[in-house]
Amino acid sequence: MTSLWRRHRWWLTPTLLILPGAILFAVVILASSVQSLWISLHDWDGFGPMIWIGLGNYRELINDPQFYVSLKNNLIWLVMFMLAPPIGLAIALLVNQKIKGMRVVKSMFFIPLVLASVAVGVVFTWVYTPEFGLLALIFRAFGANAPALLSDEHLVTFAIVIAALWPQIAFCMVLYLAGLNNLSEELVGAGRVDGARGWNMLRHIVLPQLTQVTFIALAVTVVGALRSFDMISVMTRGGPFGSSSVLAYQMFEQSIFSYRFGYGAAIASVLFVIMAVFITWYLTRIIRAEERGA
C-alpha cells in the first residue's frame, strides 16, 4: 500500500486535496443552478405542486417593464463600480509611501472593508437623510437644502452605488497594496537608473507588474456589481416604486413576497447566464494574456 501511494502520490495528493472543494462546489453551486433552471420552467408558489409552463416565465420576463428597470440598474452598478479599481490603486499608491503617520491613514482607509454591508447601508441611510444627515449639514452650510436622494427615482440608484463603492474601493486598495509590496526591486531600481520617475515609472515599471492584481480586482468588482443585493435591501428595499431594484433583488422580491418561485428562478437564470458569459470571456482573456507572456 505504501509503495502504491509513493508511485501515484504525484496525482493522488492534489486530487485528495481538491476533491472536498470540488464536491462542495458541485452540490452547492452546480446542482443548485440546475435545480433553479428546472424551477424556472414551472409555475410554483414554493409550497404546492409545480405546474409545468415551459418558457412561460421567460416570455413574461421579456414583457415585464420592471425587468428592464432592474437590468438598467445593474448596468449602472457595473459602470460606476469600474471606478473602484483605479481609485483603489490611487489610494494604495498614496498610503504605500514611507511617510510618518501613514499607518494611521492606511488603517482609516481599511475600516470600510471590515464593516458589514448592512452597517454601511445603515450609515449611508443616515448620511442621506435630508433633515439631519451629514449631506443635509453640508448643504445647509452653503444655504441650500439637501435633496432626498433615496426618495428620488432618478437619483436613488446612484446614491446606493456611491455607498457600495466605499467598501469596494477599500477592497481594491488592499489588493493593490499587496501587489505593490511584491514589486520586483530589481526592475524598480533599473527604472530609476534609466531615469524613470513619476508617471513613466508607474506606466512602464509598476503597472505591468500589477496586471494579475488588476485582473482579480476587475473580476471581483464586476461580480460584486452584478450580484448587488444587500445594500438595496437595507437602504430602499427596491423603492421608490421599484426604481432602485436590480435583478438579484427582483428575484428575491418575486420569490419571497409574491410567492412566485418559478418567476424568481427565471430572473436568477438570466443573472446566472450574464455572469457565466462574463466569467468565460474574462478567463479567456487571462489565459491568452498568460500565453503571450510565456
Automatic annotation (TrEMBL):
Family named by the database record: Belongs to the binding-protein-dependent transport system permease family.
TM segment ranges: 75-95, 107-128, 155-178, 205-226, 261-283
Subcellular location: Cell membrane
One Pfam family from the record: BPD_transp_1
Signal peptide: none
UniProt name for this protein: Sugar ABC transporter permease
Membrane topology qualifier: Multi-pass membrane protein
Record domain ABC transmembrane type-1: where: 70-284
Organism: Sinorhizobium kummerowiae
Alphabetized UniProt keyword annotations: Cell membrane, Membrane, Plasmid, Transmembrane, Transmembrane helix, Transport
